[in-house]
Design a protein that fits this description.
Radius of gyration: 14 Å
Helix content: 40-55%
Number of domains: 1
Number of strands: 3
Oligomer: single chain
Largest sheet: 3 strands, parallel
Number of helices: 6
Order of helices and strands: EHEHEHHHH
Structural class: mainly alpha
Length: about 140
Amino acid sequence: MKWITREHIKVDRVACPWLIRRFIDPQAQFLFVDESQLLETAARENATPFDAPRLSEVKLNHHGVRCSFEAIIEDYHLQAPGLERLALIVRAADIKGQEQVAVEGIGLRAVAEGFAALGLSDEERLVRQFPVYDALYEYARQAP
């Protein structure tokens, strides 16, 4: 399956592909495009769009104070232990003003900003950051 989001990925647009590959579609392919091309490219490539809050047509998006990672968990009925806790960390890192929902979020935001500053391609950001999400997921599964 193909999935598509905005280019220059950071927190939520790294977390969502990790979630999709880990719990929904292990063979998922991800496309990263300019927001102005997202809907057109999604239709042409038969790709599922996610995390484009300015595009109301995108279903897998921020919902109120909740991030796209949380929307995917809800829409795909994911219930693995630790996912709710990880979702709060992702929200705290991704959405300014939501830092209080998980103290770990500020650290994840710093990691994401650091990867962005390295000037890596979106694909390389996924490769390098998936282990961070693997570790955070294990942490969340074991957190009280």
